[in-house]
Model the fold of this input.
Amino acid sequence: MTSLSGKRILVTRPRAQAADLCDKLSAFGAQPILFPTIEIAPLDDYSFLDRAIASLNKYHWVIFTSVNGVEAFWERLNTVGAMLASPLPKVAAIGPATARALQKNGVRAELIPDDYVAEAILEKIGDVKDKWILLPRADIAREALAIELSNRGATVHEIAAYRTLPSVIDPNGLAELQRGVDVITFTSSSTVRNFVTLVGGSSIHNLQSTIACLGPITAQTAREVGLPVDVMARDYTMDGLVAALLDYFSQSEMQMKEKI
Done:
């Protein structure tokens, strides 16, 4: 029996992307409960992204900060029938999952930061003065990376490749949440904000669940909306989140045994 056996764990990822985390939780005996708080949607207007794709050979770097960004970029690339620029600009990925998504499309990430947050890319990218940098991202992505790159003298084109929208509330997931869950997982700031919108700001103060966040940015957002963060993954991946939960509940069990 693992420390997650029987634990009811709420998964707030988009429904289409929840399977990986749900499978990993189930493998350790947990009961994952789907409660999508966001949806990934196409853009209404692709003109800006199309122009960037057509001018790809002008860029020195293309930085991908999510798997969604990679998938949306290549979907559009295939839709317009464009070929990748030759030579290809240098490509950076925020973490290993994003790098794997690039690899599936035949591209190797030359830069992957040690910490899988956008700001960590700044530590490794080197001199960007007078460099052209493309950031294909969500329409609501944080601007910190683009601003700092610009401050360092780069010409940054931060262009939406997809939209992040609030989900319609899932009645089954809501019913399970109201029954009570042991853990609520958040994998991005938008999952936190839309969770609060869906369940109601006043309701979150009555939650008795363990709050688990994928990384420091998500954790910061959770605290800002009044959620106490109990677990934060050290490795900002789905495997890292599951490992952090295993460690948290193992420690809790050990502390309870010591009190007996």
Notes: The chain has two domains: 8-37+167-259, 41-165.
